[in-house]
Amino acid sequence: MNLDKLRPDKYLKYLYLPNLFTTKRTKEILSVNPTVIPQREEAKDVLVSVFDYNADAIEEKKQAALNDCFKYKTSGRNTWINIDGLRKADVEAICSHFDIHPLVIEDILSINQRPKMDESDNYIFCLLNMLYYNEEKLAVEQEQISVILAKDVVISFQEDARRDVFTSLREKLKLPNTKLRQRGADLLCYTLLDMIVDHYFVVMEKLGDRIEDVEEEVTRGNNPRALAHITQLRKELIVLKRNFAPVRELVNGFLRSESDLLEERHEKYYKDVYDHIVQAIDLVENYRDVMVSMQDLHLNNMNLKMNEVMKVMAIVTCLLAPATVIGGIFGMNFKSIPYLHNEYGFWVAVGIMLIIPIAMVWIFRKRGWF
Description:
Layout: H1 8-12, H2 24-30, E1 47-53, E2 58-61, E3 78-84, H3 88-97, H4 102-109, E4 116-119, E5 123-134, E6 139-150, E7 153-158, H5 167-173, H6 179-182, H7 185-220, H8 226-256, H9 267-330, H10 345-367
Parallel strand pairs: 3-7
Antiparallel strand pairs: 1-2, 1-3, 4-5, 5-6, 6-7
């Protein structure tokens, strides 16, 4: 027998009671320690794309070299530099060229950073998470997005090059008569934030569909794992809440800012993003209330089923009690018991055993006990 396959350490951990209630997903959501700086893995592939444009012309580079981006610092037109995949050397190189503070570089390279907005004399930096809903894992996934707004330049850093929500923005930039082409870089920054926030509603819609499915399971009461599904959904709502609340502060920072990089006429656009994120926060709270009510309903259904089972068992016990008593009396070892040696004694005892339970059933039904 191979003792290595038994792995006793795999089972000994369950002797500690709290380990019975922890899951990997819980640790992923709640285990964030700002005093410990995790090491980010260097991206294998880095994709740099550039849009340099004004109202009359546009230049697009889909797979540009990092050094090619440096010339757009003083191009005289609006420039969007998007970097998919983070490498420390690349981030430091481009941030140093555009005079970005080293602390901002640390924030860009950080992991599990809280969404925030920082303002400097020559740039505005904001960091937030782009959210996706994984249909296979039934979990909300997040990707950190960093955006830097400088004079006529917007630089965005993404972790994953395989997915983003900026496809429609790229197509819109190619159209000559749009506001994006005719306005400044701050409107481009607004558009990036707006698309990220709008995608939050797509994630919540899919999560809402999942909540409806679980609610149907709870209402029907035919799934014993409904409580586990409710717990899973409440964890995903924690992810949403942790991302939405700081984004409200982030957008509010743009509204309060007096930076020359933000045009006053574009303030109403950032107010629109603020309204959207407030609505998203309210919707998450509504989802949370629904989950709490759903959990209470599930527990009440379980208690109701238990009460029904206990009631049936109590009724059966009561109906069998007379037969048990009569059988016990006639089973005593006494020489003289009425009807013990009578030829009709057995049938009399059986008749009493039947008549009394029938009378009890009639009384129970009359009183409405079942």
